[in-house]
Amino acid sequence: MLKIIIAGNYGAGNIGDEMILEGILKILRDVLTEPEITVLSGNPKETEERHKVSAVEKFPAGIRSLIKSFFTTGSKTRKAVKECDYFILGGGGLFNGKDFFSNIIWGIQAFWAYHCKKSALMMGQSMDMPKSKIIKLIIKKLFNKACFISVRDENSKENLKKLGIRKKIYVTPDFAFELPFRKTEISDSVSREKYVLFALRQTKKLDQHFKTVIVEFINWLMDFKKLNIVLVNFQNTGRDSDDMVNEEIYKEIKDKEKIKFIKNTESSELLNLFANADFAVCMRFHAVVLAVKTETPFIALNYASKVEDFLKYAKLDNQKIDLNDLSQEKLKIYFDQFIRDQNLKRKMEEFNKNAARRLSELENLTLRNIFSSDR
Hints:
The chain is an alpha/beta fold. The chain has 14 helices and 13 strands. About 45% of the residues lie in helices and about 15% in strands. Helix 1 (about 15-30) packs across helix 14, helix 5 packs parallel to helix 6 (about 135-145) and helix 8 packs across helix 9 (about 245-250). The model is unreliable at about 185-190 (pLDDT under 50).
């Protein structure tokens, strides 16, 4: 029985990261017979309850938390890594050019694995080009030591090559595409009312113009299109909670009875919610992923390179509006253009077929070979 450690931004209140973990767990359980899996989490109890796996605290990044961990939970984490067969750093935009500290946090997780002489897999990463020479060096060292690397789009692959990564780099869709879903199995508990789903994200760049445009667009959808509105939280805790932007939007809406909030939901419920929506306005990366997976017409509000890179990879570049180009007029035009666009439907259907094929190849042709050496 192989012992696997998975580290990532888990237990942090972000449903997108939890879907990544759910997809990785499905892959491992498809490839291996009863693997012994432990997750390094920001909230081990929640991770154990949600995913039915063992979980311990991830390695701390700050000096105080590092000292504290040596006397409390740190021994469990160190023991788990020392005893594992493989270490997986599991996906998302963990390494990026904007957040210096984020790169350090995830670099420390991988460092401990290498310190314990463990084989590490870098799975499902997004990679924009960091500006810091220190971060470039950290990424180069970490990824060149990995026994396996996969990224979520072609641009991430090219950025890693530019950073001097010499290993083979696989391009596979986000692991949320591994989640089971059939359009014929939509839950009856989901409202059948016509609605547009909004998955917004709180960022430092969100000014009053952004909020005014979104409010006016929502009022237009309710008044002229006779549609209800669903505001979804993908991040439920912390300083970046989606509640912040959703509450500000809600305060300015005229007909509040047509607004519904969705918080703290499971991935299966989110999939059903997207599948039943008439349209989706997606700022959160994994909202874009779910719109494509459920083949729901959508607009992507482009706030980060990972959103743009994924859309380019999926050949859906036309679905994005950059934040600096956002206007009510453009939202209306895109809505009317895409809500019944059969070509968009065909593109999403084609991408889903390719995603299933690539993920199957990852399981059957690559990971089975890596893990088979320890059987």
